[in-house]
Amino acid sequence: MAVGIFDSGLGGLTVLEAAQRRLPEVDFLYLGDSAHAPYGVRDADDVFNLTVASVQRLWDGGCDLVILACNTASAAALRRMQEGGLPKGKRVLGVFVPLIEALTERQWGDNSPPREVAVKHVALFATPATVASRAFQRELAFRAIGVDVEAQACGGVVDAIEDGDMILAEALVRSHVDALKRKMPNPQAAVLGCTHYPLMQQTFQDALGPDVTVFSQADLVAESLADYLERHPNMMGTGAAGYLTTGDARRVSDRATQFLRREIRFQAA
After folding, report:
1. Which residues are annotated as a binding site for substrate?
2. Per-residue pLDDT tens for 118-128?
3. How many CB atoms lie within 10 A of CB 261?
4. Enzyme catalytic residues
5. 3.40.50.720, 2.30.30.90, 3.40.50.1860, 3.40.190.10: which CATH number matches 2-94+218-268?
6. How many CB atoms lie within 10 A of CB 203?
7. Which pTM value belongs to this model?
């Protein structure tokens, strides 16, 4: 019985790997929409339509619960999908809330009114589409008051990672951190608001300095998922585990194997 994990490309594999470590007894069906990646440069309606189609594919595959392991999809599509009404017995969860709960030191699922928190200055690194949506700031405002967020759109980083050009990715990360620090010289915390970015976490940390706490999503989402499944054991679904892609399965498999440093074999979605 599989839980669905969706991403625009390979970035969600960081969430998948963390979830597999945390929940070894759970099967996962991963879908990467590599044919249309990256999402971070698309407009909100385009991202919404692509996300809905991919989530429907996972539902059709027997996954009653789908995790949007893509910040751009979470920003542009999640709330719209939920407000539009989901099919009976189906759920879609995003990746922002677990990150914000950790940042604001809340227990999973704590929906109490917003309150003062220790962190006052937060740097957000994300795709241009996620930054433009202001979804992170909106979700944060539901939980905390008095927090200054400075967002930096990290153009080019996802493309470099997907292409396997880590030297370019590192150079771009350092450039984006420099740009952020010109606007917010002394952030207390930094949020890596893209599931590709954990692969560059050390580069972000080195560029930001040791006094900045870097929040990365993979382990936080995995822990939140474990808590959710404990409270909703009926959401396991009936699907089989596997890896699906809308792109070239052989090329995506090769990239994924490099990505996780273990053999991964994708099939056409």
Report:
1. 7-8, 39-40, 71-72, 195-196
2. 999 999 999 99
3. 7
4. 70, 194
5. 3.40.50.1860
6. 19
7. 0.90
